[in-house]
Amino acid sequence: MKRTRFQNCIEYLILKIFIVIFFLLGKNISQFLGRIIATVMYYFIPVRKREVLENISLSFTEKTKKDIKLIAKNTYKTFIKMVIDVIFLSKISDADIKKLLIYDENIIKKALDKGNGLILMSAHFGNWELSAFALSKKYPLAFIVAKQSNSLVNKLLSDFRRKKGFNITNFQRDLKMSFRSAIKILKKNQILAILGDQDAGEHGVFLPFLGRLASTPRGPAFFAIHAGSPIVTAFSINQSDGSIKIELEDITMPNTGNKQKDIEIINSIYNKRLEKVIRSNPEQWFWFHRRWKSIGLRLDNDRKVY
């Protein structure tokens, strides 16, 4: 169903009102309120709750219904916490933002020293937005993002991201159009960050992920192969002390002589690494995505958890 301008305006207005309220309350109180909001959303405003529970249940067949529901509840809390953290970015100095990250700088430096840019294959995990902001304070960073369905919210987010220091390139379903944008960034020896954990539809490559086949985006691997750029997986994991640990690990570029096979190898490595961090911290992944929608999987009637 096509969205109306009235719907967009109402959603935009609600978002702006919440931002003002959070600013007036301060960050600590806002985070406390955010946990309450997350709980209320889980029980009374169940946005994609069915998908969240199905995704978790099918990915963790060994867990009980109680465990699955707890992961789902904490997923809501993780997301709301990230939103509030991003809202308060304007109140944090660049120096303090950089201090939040724990990561191996040598991996990034080694990759950029090659002069062909760097592709970071990341995911909607932990606090991916805050991690991107922090990295952009030290490195030239561009982000390929999908447009929000609400054009007003999309403009608000894009303007905010650019203001905080990194370039935004809108995701294109047309691989050739995305390729041209990516090459411009990589030729400048910049970092191109891509979140590769969403369903890629018929354009993706179907590979195992959390026990099922999932359509995985070709883009990051395609760009790396054609631009000769190193590629590094990067997952941001929230720590108990409020810091964020970014797990960085480079991918040795395959050279089978078959580009399609090379793309599959790169994406298989990415999927396995992401699966590992998800199994260690399941509440930190964005389970709201319809990650497996291209293969139409649904819970069997005897495994309902909602």
Task: Itemize the secondary structure elements and their pairings.
Layout: H1 5-25, H2 27-44, H3 49-59, H4 65-87, H5 94-99, E1 101-102, H6 105-112, E2 118-122, H7 128-136, E3 141-145, H8 151-163, E4 167-170, H9 175-187, E5 191-195, E6 205-209, E7 212-216, H10 219-227, E8 231-238, E9 244-251, H11 259-280
Parallel strand pairs: 1-9, 2-5, 2-8, 3-4, 3-5
Antiparallel strand pairs: 6-7, 8-9
Report what the structure shows:
By secondary structure, the protein is an alpha/beta fold. The protein has one domain. The protein is built from eleven helices and nine strands. The protein has helices at residues 5-25, 27-44, 49-59, 65-87, 94-99, 105-112, 128-136, 151-163, 175-187, 219-227, 259-280, and strands at 101-102, 118-122, 141-145, 167-170, 191-195, 205-209, 212-216, 231-238, 244-251. Strands 1-9-8-2-5-3-4 form a seven-stranded mixed β-sheet, sandwiched between helices. Strand 8 and strand 9 (244-251) form a beta hairpin. Helix 1 (5-25) packs across helix 2 (27-44) and helix 3 (49-59) packs across helix 4 (65-87). The longest helix is centred in the N-terminal third of the chain and has 23 residues, at 65-87. Mean pLDDT is 88; it is low at 297-306.
- What about the largest sheet? 7 strands, mixed
Q: Order of strands across the biggest sheet?
A: 1-9-8-2-5-3-4
Contiguous runs where pLDDT drops below 50 for at least 5 residues: 297-306
What number of domains? 1
Compact overview of the structure:
This protein has one domain. Helix content is 50%, strand content 15%.
